[in-house]
Design a protein that fits this description.
Elements: H1 3-7, E1 10-16, H2 20-30, H3 36-39, H4 41-48, E2 49-50, E3 55-63, E4 69-77, E5 89-97, H5 106-117, E6 122-123, H6 133-139, E7 146-151, E8 182-184, H7 186-190, H8 195-198, H9 206-214, E9 222-227, E10 233-244, E11 247-257, H10 266-275, E12 280-285
Parallel strand pairs: 5-6, 11-12
Antiparallel strand pairs: 1-3, 2-3, 3-4, 4-5, 7-12, 8-9, 9-10, 10-11
Length: 287
């Protein structure tokens, strides 16, 4: 119902390859001048350049009179990292209206354009900004994820953590299993097979994890296997080290396999966080 009203003044479209400089200019002026996409064309192309459809994955609202972008929303499809995924999940990223335009509803139009023109069975976002949260709360189902953590018990002072004096460093009633974590090389991950692969959700794939993490152009991700009593892969998790002002933490960013496989492995998680000299290890998730 609203589209005809806005279409009088705006063209809504997915960014063509030769329009990406307009997007970068928009981000520089209206988002952040030193944004990672502006500083690294390699990162921008890796995440947003859709070579299959010959486009950049941004929804644009272009003002017909001036030819300028007045609003945009980026998106990532999990199939971007594996074209064989037939039912991808779509994540919105970088949703922005120009502050000097002040046209209510324009941002919603780029948001809805994505639903109409990039339809998917799965859709979600993590880490919604304070500005965007009230809008998402009206449009979608929202919630709060849980930050599970283990503090490095060999440290007494933490730079990345506050209120740690009142918090337990880890759950002390865990009964440890004997199986040891196994860090996999990229080649070992590629060779991975068995029941654990069958537990990957349909909107991701083994190839997705390979391209999304192990072939990231900037970050160095690692992949660790949780074995069962027979040494077969029971679960896989991906993680990386984050650093700030000389301090480090270890963040688990993705996981597939049996949901209960992390239970009882306190000793291995402690060994991992201690060996990396990290202040803590955490896993933010829901489910």
């Amino acid at each position: 119902k609203l589209l005809p009203l806005f279409s009088k003044s705006y063209t809504f479209k997915i960014c063509e390859v030769d329009e990406i400089e307009m997007v970068l200019d928009f981000l520089k002026k209206h988002w952040k001048a030193d944004h990672a996409f502006i500083k690294s064309r390699e990162l921008l192309d890796w995440q947003q350049l859709d070579k299959v459809n010959n486009r950049y994955n941004f929804i644009l609202a272009i003002h017909k009179e001036t030819g300028e972008i007045h609003a945009l929303q980026g998106f990532i499809l999990s199939s971007h990292f594996d074209p064989e995924i037939s039912n991808p999940i779509r994540w919105p990223v970088m949703w922005k209206n120009r502050d000097d335009v002040g046209l209510p509803g324009l941002g919603l139009m780029v948001h809805w354009f994505a639903f109409a023109n990039v339809p998917t069975n799965y859709y979600g976002s993590l880490g919604i900004s304070d500005i965007a949260f009230p809008i998402y709360k009206k449009l979608d189902q929202t919630g709060v994820t849980t930050q599970w953590y283990i503090l490095n018990p060999k440290m007494t002072v933490y730079s990345l953590v506050s209120n740690y004096e009142q918090c337990p460093k880890y759950n002390q009633i865990i009964t440890n299993k004997s199986e040891k974590f196994i860090n996999l090389s990229t080649d070992e991950y590629i060779a991975l097979s068995g029941d654990v692969v069958d537990k990957i959700p349909e909107y991701k794939s083994k190839t997705y994890y390979l391209n999304r993490y192990l072939r990231h152009p900037i970050y160095e991700y690692k992949v660790t296997m949780i074995p069962d009593s027979e040494g077969k892969a029971e679960a896989i998790f991906f993680w990386r080290i984050c650093e700030h002002n000389g301090s480090k933490c270890l963040r688990i960013v993705d996981y597939f396999g049996d949901y209960t496989s992390m239970e009882g492995h306190l000793a291995e998680f402690l060994l991992l966080v201690e060996s990396e000299g990290a202040e803590f290890i955490d896993f933010i998730n829901e489910g």
